[in-house]
From TrEMBL:
GO CC terms in record: plasma membrane
Protein name: diguanylate cyclase
Residue positions where 4-aspartylphosphate is found in the record: D76
A GO biological process held by the record: phosphorelay signal transduction system
Record's keyword terms, sorted: Phosphoprotein
Residue intervals of the GGDEF domain: 183-312
Length: 312
């Protein structure tokens, strides 16, 4: 029996092992038609450790967001090309930007105009001139909340891996990057063998534990090489940038061999579990869906070939 105190330590240790990424500075995109004002704001935020990008043309905002991936937008209310609330409205219409925080920074002191801007999509309204500490603190509060929300939205509750839809977004992004500058990129699909039997024999909670054991192992072994998703119930996906088909297959096969050694318990019963996997490599011109189809077909071959194997 594990003493409760030891258990806490164990959980802490596991959390550190999987969450030992350094704190990432907040990414703020500043939009202001006045370059000098935007630069000054950027300087204040950079001094507080944030990463900033300045845009003076609101018309290329969507593209800048796609490229820079900000966690917060600091927008001037009055620009000649389009007003801040118009920009907010356009941003809110994009699926993947619907929750991106938009903070207005403006000399506008008319409360009704401020409220209108917030109704059109703004999360906060800061008035110029603003004290540097107030600016930094306000941006931090809003960005922090967004990061927490996003973490909850993008991660699966049982395993902590990326959800199907967020993994799909990452896949699209990586493939788009490859279209611009081709490099090796591999995608693996994993599926636990005869998982239904585990559920049927030992019950759903034991099945859940088996799913978690594989996700833990994936995190320990493969997280540093790429992105991990829970694709479906007992299905996982691994996206490996800068990795050839051969290396990807070696890594997944090493995982397969370690996983099949793992002993699971259900009451008095001790049992083992295996998975099958399919790996595909991106080739020039391939779309994200073609790549996942190729990995899926390889997985199908692994199942047909007798399971507990990796096919490429
Ligand atoms: P195969 O070797 O061909 O993959 O067979 P399988 O039994 O693993 O595949 P199948 O797709 O028939 O069964 C998957 C089962 O996983 C069906 C579903 O009830 C179960 N399942 C899906 N999500 C969860 C979950 O979150 N927890 C548990 N315990 N079971 C789940
Ligand atoms: Mg202006
Ligand atoms: Mg399945
Ligand atoms: Mg299965």
């Amino acid at each position: 029996l594990i003493h409760p105190y030891d258990l806490t330590q164990l959980v802490d240790r596991l959390d550190r092992q999987t969450d030992n990424l350094p704190f990432e500075p907040y990414r703020v995109l500043i939009v202001d038609d006045s370059h000098s004002i935007a630069e000054h704001t950027g300087k204040v935020l950079r001094q507080a450790g944030m990463v900033t990008r300045v845009e003076t043309d609101p018309l290329i905002l969507l593209q800048a967001i796609e490229e820079f991936e900000p966690e917060l937008l600091l927008v001037d209310m009055y620009m000649p090309e389009c007003t801040g609330d118009e920009a907010a409205k356009v941003i809110r219409q994009q699926d993947n930007m619907a929750s991106l925080p938009i903070v207005f920074l403006s000399g506008e002191t008319d409360i009704s105009k401020q409220l209108l801007a917030r109704r059109k999509g703004g999360d906060d309204f800061l008035t110029k001139p603003i004290q540097p500490q107030v600016l930094v603190e306000s941006v931090t509060i809003t960005a922090e909340r967004y990061r927490t929300l996003r973490r909850l939205m993008c991660h699966d509750g049982l395993t902590g891996l990326l959800t199907h839809s967020h993994f799909g977004e990452q896949l699209l992004r990586e493939v788009a990057r490859n279209q611009r500058e081709p490099q090796a990129l591999a995608l693996a699909m994993l599926d636990i063998d005869h998982f239904k039997r585990i559920n049927d024999s030992y019950g759903h909670p034991v099945g859940d534990r088996v799913i978690r054991s594989l996700s833990r192992m994936l995190q320990m072994r493969l997280r540093r090489f790429g992105q991990l998703g829970r694709y479906g119930g007992e299905e996982f996906a691994v996206l490996l940038p800068e990795t050839s088909l051969e290396v990807a297959m070696q890594r997944i096969d090493a995982l397969r061999q370690a996983y099949m050694q793992l002993q699971h318990t259900a009451g008095e019963v001790v049992f083992n579990s295996t998975f099958s996997a399919g790996v595909a490599a991106w080739k020039p011109g391939m779309t994200a869906s073609e790549l996942s189809l190729a990995a899926d077909q390889a997985l199908y071959r692994a199942k047909q070939g007798g399971r507990n194997q990796v096919c490429g």
